[in-house]
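Model it.
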Amino acid sequence: MLRQALILVHLLGAILWIGGMFFAYVCLRPAAAQVLDPPQRLPLWSATFARFLPAAAVAVLALLASGFAMLAQPGFAQAPIGWHLMLALGLLMSGVFAYVHAVLYPRLRSACAEAAWPRAAQALNGIRRLVALNLVLGILTVAAAITAR
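Modeled.
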């Protein structure tokens, strides 16, 4: 029963985080760029991240906690190599997320509050690149999960 609960928490965390990045990068980003000028688009992103990043932080913590708990069950040394690959990718993704959340998003929020659109655009561009990286890493992590058995 514990294993199923851990898998559920892990899957829900991955769905929220990776799905949210996919939506933001593939759907919202091009649509916002097409219909909004920077003075409207950049505050939209700031407000979007104000809602998404706290939820994603919960997902990241849930993924790390459930992942470590599942790795501990057979013991790290006995866990399949794919699990170790998932752990490495997950830790890398978590570091990227932490940088976006703690450094780049506050820059975006501050620049938007000051209507400093070039600075806001620069911060958003950094976030965009790191979300693209994390989206690719997330897909690779899912592939590692499939091959982990």
